[in-house]
Write a structure and sequence with these properties.
Strand content: 35-45%
Shape: elongated
Structural class: alpha+beta
Number of strands: 11
Largest sheet: 7 strands, mixed
Order of helices and strands: HEEEEEEHEEEEE
Oligomer: single chain
Length: 174
C-alpha cells in the first residue's frame, strides 16, 4: 500500500476532538464521585417557639431507598419551649417534597410521659407545621422530624415507610 496518501486531521479538528474528550471524561468523573459519595443531609429544619428559633441538620440521613446511610451525632437542637407555647416547625423543600411527619414527647399535668405524632404530610403539601399540645399545662420534652423514604415493609398496622432522615429537638424546660 505504498503510495496511498495519508489523510491528516486539521489542527482545529484535533482541538475540538480533544475538548469533547475532556468534557466526557469530566462528566464521567463527576458521576462516579457522586455515585460513591453516599447520601448527604437534605438540609436544615428550623424549630421555633416563643420568639426563639433553632436550626439543625439531620442527625441521620439515608438515600431514598434507605440502603446507604450517614449520620451527624452533633446534630441536635436545644430550644426552650414553655408550657402553652406552640412549636413551629419549618422543613426545607427537599423534605416537604416527600412524605414527612413530626413525632414528639411531652409530660402531662400529672408528670406522665406521653407520645404523639402529627399527620403524615403528603409530598408538596406543606413546609410548616405548628404543634399545639392537648392541654395548656403539658410540657414538650422533645420533637423529631421524620422524612420517609421509598422502602416499604409490612408492620403490625399494615405497610410502613422506612425513615429516611431525622432532625432532633431537645427541649430546655428549666
Amino acid at each position: 500500500m505504498a503510495g496511498t496518501p495519508v489523510r491528516t486531521l486539521s489542527r482545529r479538528s484535533l482541538v475540538v476532538g480533544g475538548a469533547i474528550l475532556l468534557v466526557v471524561v469530566a462528566v464521567i468523573v463527576v458521576l462516579v464521585v457522586r455515585a460513591n459519595a453516599g447520601p448527604s443531609s437534605p438540609g436544615d429544619v428550623t424549630f421555633g417557639a416563643g420568639g426563639a428559633q433553632a436550626a439543625v441538620g439531620a442527625s441521620q440521613f439515608c438515600d431514598v431507598q434507605v440502603t446507604e446511610c450517614g449520620d451527624d451525632p452533633d446534630a441536635n437542637a436545644v430550644l426552650p419551649v414553655p408550657p402553652n407555647t406552640p412549636l413551629v416547625v419549618r422543613v426545607p423543600e427537599q423534605v416537604s417534597s416527600t412524605p414527612w411527619q413530626l413525632a414528639f414527647q411531652f409530660r402531662d399535668a400529672n408528670g406522665a410521659t406521653q407520645q404523639g405524632r402529627s399527620p403524615v404530610f403528603a409530598p408538596g403539601t406543606t413546609p410548616t407545621y405548628t404543634l399545639v399540645l392537648p392541654d395548656a399545662a403539658d410540657q414538650l420534652t422533645s420533637a423529631e422530624v421524620q422524612q420517609y423514604g421509598a422502602r416499604l415493609s409490612q408492620g403490625p398496622n399494615g405497610l410502613e415507610f422506612a425513615t429516611r432522615a431525622t432532625w432532633v429537638l431537645s427541649v430546655d424546660d428549666r
